[in-house]
Amino acid sequence: MARPKIVLFGDSITQRSFEPGGWGAALTNTFSRKADVIVRGYGGYNTKLALFLLDETFPTNCTKPPVAVTVFFGANDAALLGRNNEQQHVPIAQYKENLLKIVYHIKESIPAVLVVLITPPPVDEVGRIEYARSLYGENAKPPERTNEMAGMYAKTCMEVAAELNVPSINLWSKMQETPDWQKYLCDGLHLTEEGNAVVHGEVVKVLASGGLHAPGMPYDFPHHSQIDFEKPEEAFKKQR
Question: According to the model, what pLDDT value does residue 163 have?
Fold first, then answer.
């Protein structure tokens, strides 16, 4: 029995999701023996670069396509012009167009797939300054990202989700519901273990509402409690 596949597609926040305490690793645990969670995260990538990955990551002739895909870009697109990492900047109108192209490609390649859009998280500008100073000392330049700009890209991401009628997670807003939300970010941008837990919880809820509720999904092979150890072949016949 082939396990369903869930693909996590995004930038460094997705790439790092399989680190200890990461949301991708937690998702793998949630779907243990129910589905395979595959990470396709690319540190430093924005939606412009993501377009070049689509044919290889989501080919039209895939024999075992994923049942769900999370699309998690925007943190790099929102980098400010005139600051460090300005090469990552993607104008907001182009960001929207790129997101549309990404979702269209995935849906055209895999019509039945559940696509979930995730907005960039908020930016802790103080934490970002402190991180830059830890690297460059007093010569550190002003933060290359602001929370206000991240919010604009988050809003655009939600607009795309509504336009395409696909589920979404407004991580920018969700995290800021907590008064001390800065604890979710380790360097003002990337996620702490607590921040990863927020993403994991939101992704699990959205997947469940889309029909991928882990407790109700079958095991890839019978659970030991379902097996008569005197006649194990009967359990495996039923599984097929």
Answer: 97
Measured CA distances, 19 to 8, 33, 83, 143 (Å): 14, 20, 29, 25
pLDDT, tens digit, for every residue of 152-202? 999 999 999 999 999 999 999 999 999 999 999 999 999 999 999 999 999
Q: What domains can you pick out in the chain, each with its CATH number? A: 5-239 (3.40.50.1110)
User: CB under 8 Å to 14, separation ≥6 — which residues?
Assistant: 8, 24, 39, 40, 41, 42, 70, 72
- Residue 237: count other Cβ atoms within 10 Å of its Cβ: 10
Name the amino acid, one letter, at 40: R
What is the Cα–Cα distance from 239 to 222, expressed in whole angstroms?
7
Phi, psi dihedral angles at 77 (to 5 degrees): -55, -35
* Contact partners, residue 30, CB within 8 Å, separation at least 6: 200, 204, 214
Degrees (nearest 5) of the Cα angle 207, 209, 213? 60
- Which residues are designated catalytic? 12
Residues 6+ apart with CB under 8 A from 27: 6, 8, 17, 37, 200, 203, 204
Residue 73 to residue 46: CA distance in whole angstroms = 6
Sign of CA dihedral 150, 152, 154, 157: negative
Structure tokens at 135: 């690297």
Rounded to 5°, the CA angle 166-172-178 comes to 125
